């Protein structure tokens, strides 16, 4: 069976079996027996190979990837320049540990990141293995630099799963429940959500209210003289692809400047060209003191980076930061090639094209389907939020899961998002073609339509 599209191009989606098919079912059973149940999955797709925006499963089905490794695959699956760079490095050596030796690849990557990161000041880069590690180092270095204990974070945030980053993360029930006490001196403030403005309040009044709450929190919750860092995602990822308004980010910059606080932007999901600019904070024109990046920086390889003002980055004593695998040359050469691709003018044009095609298509869904409460995002970082009705905006996570299962059965990979798990996030590889994008969006829309028909809407 194959999907039908509104154009004459041959569909990328080719379904030979149900998903999962027999081989997929066997491997999923092995996964259940070998891996912990807490390591959940969004779909039952078992991958055999992947190129560009297309994934082939072990039963011979081909699907379109609209999850993109949760933002990890901006440059597409297995791009030739990345694969070849990794192969060349493997022929030389795998790793000798930066704590023991010096290798050129990590230096080359750091130089590249220092050059392209926001801010007209001297920068240095710490290379890590994961986004969580990058964020944890950012907070630790900010504490060392300021000699202060407190950190301000925001509702809806996701910053990782280590003890400190889990403490920084919002959405308690999914991520934090049952794991015991969290780190101290963390102060969580509301972030503006322009979709969920209180009834009777205009958008400008709501934003003014949110800005005023920041000043109030520095009296009621924590003295700014105790705050080492303010940490925020310029576009909330797990929190529901909520762009933080420019005045709010500027207010944080002003507060940080006034009180000697380190401003950290977490761009692990929203960065690396996803929003139509290289860094999401460029939309607001606000420059942080430190910025974290990972996911698509490595094109699928496990690597992350913390880039910051040299004065701040140099503050810990020698030996105070680092790790065995940080700056792996195999991951670094992959990241160098991925970043070079992302910063090229041709790739940025692709991002604009993908984002605009998604925006136009998804905006129409709000008019056609009453349970679509909102569609939003920046560039090619797009999301659809499902509600039980548009008046109350009551979240409907069950409907969301139903649509994901239906759409996956018809050939696209998806994953949920949002504080209430009632959103579907779309992060397709930015190398996806127009026809592939139209094909996948039609599959998702058909699943939305069937869910409405099932409810008599």
Briefly characterize the structure:
The protein has 457 residues and is an alpha/beta fold. The chain is built from 14 helices and 17 strands.
Shape, per Cα inertia axes: globular
- How much of the sequence lies in strands comes to 15-25%
Spatially, the strands of the biggest sheet line up as 4-12-11-10-7-5-6
* Helical content band: 25-40%
Cα radius of gyration in angstroms:
22 Å
Q: How many beta-strand elements?
A: 17
Name of the top-level CATH class of the largest domain? Alpha Beta
Poorly predicted ranges (pLDDT <50, ≥5 residues)? none
Going by CATH, the homologous superfamily of the largest domain would be: Type I PLP-dependent aspartate aminotransferase-like (Major domain)
Largest sheet: 7 strands, mixed
Given the structure, what is the number of helices?
14
Count of discrete structural domains: 2
Mean pLDDT over the full residue set:
96
Distance between the termini: 28 Å
Which architecture of the largest domain per CATH?
3-Layer(aba) Sandwich
CATH topology of the largest domain: Aspartate Aminotransferase, domain 2
- The helix/strand class is alpha/beta
């Amino acid at each position: 069976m194959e999907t039908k599209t509104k154009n004459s191009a041959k569909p990328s989606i080719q379904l030979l079996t149900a998903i999962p098919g027999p081989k997929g079912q066997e491997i999923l059973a092995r996964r259940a027996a070998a891996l912990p149940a807490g390591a959940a999955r969004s779909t039952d797709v078992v991958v055999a190979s992947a190129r560009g925006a297309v994934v082939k499963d072990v039963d011979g089905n081909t699907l379109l990837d609209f999850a993109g490794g949760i933002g990890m695959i901006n440059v597409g699956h297995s791009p030739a320049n990345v694969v070849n760079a990794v192969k060349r490095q493997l022929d030389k050596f795998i790793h000798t540990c930066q704590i023991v030796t010096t290798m050129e690849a990590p230096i080359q990557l750091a130089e590249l990141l220092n050059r392209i990161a926001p801010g007209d000041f001297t920068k240095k880069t710490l290379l890590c293995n994961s986004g969580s590690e990058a964020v944890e180092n950012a907070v630790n270095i900010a504490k060392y630099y300021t000699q202060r204990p407190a950190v301000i974070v925001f509702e809806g945030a996701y910053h990782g799963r280590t003890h400190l980053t889990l403490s920084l993360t919002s959405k308690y029930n999914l991520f934090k429940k049952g794991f015991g006490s969290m780190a101290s001196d963390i102060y969580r403030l509301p972030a503006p959500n322009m979709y969920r403005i209180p009834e009777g309040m205009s958008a400008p009044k709501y934003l003014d209210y949110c800005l005023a709450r920041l000043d109030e929190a520095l009296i009621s919750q924590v003295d700014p003289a105790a705050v080492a860092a303010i940490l925020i995602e310029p576009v909330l990822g797990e929190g529901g692809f909520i762009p933080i308004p420019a005045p709010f980010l500027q207010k944080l910059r002003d507060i940080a400047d006034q009180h000697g606080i380190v401003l950290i932007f977490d761009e692990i999901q929203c960065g690396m060209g996803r929003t139509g600019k290289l860094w999401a904070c460029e939309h607001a024109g606000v420059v942080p003191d430190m910025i974290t990046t990972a996911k698509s920086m490595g094109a699928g390889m496990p690597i992350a980076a913390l880039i910051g003002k040299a004065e701040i980055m140099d503050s810990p004593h020698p030996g105070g930061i680092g790790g065995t695998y940080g700056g792996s040359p195999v991951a670094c050469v992959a990241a160098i090639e991925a970043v070079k691709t992302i910063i090229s003018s041709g790739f940025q044009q692709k991002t604009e094209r993908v984002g605009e095609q998604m925006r136009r298509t998804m905006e129409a869904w709000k008019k056609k389907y009453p349970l679509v409460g909102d569609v939003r995002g920046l560039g090619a970082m797009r999301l659809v939020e499902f509600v039980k009705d548009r008046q109350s905006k009551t979240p409907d996570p069950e409907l969301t899961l139903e649509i994901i299962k239906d759409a996956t059965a018809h050939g696209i990979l998806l994953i949920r998002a949002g504080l209430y798990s009632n959103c579907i996030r779309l992060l397709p590889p930015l190398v996806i073609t127009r026809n592939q994008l139209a094909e996948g969006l039609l599959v998702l829309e058909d699943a939305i339509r069937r869910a409405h028909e099932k409810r008599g809407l």
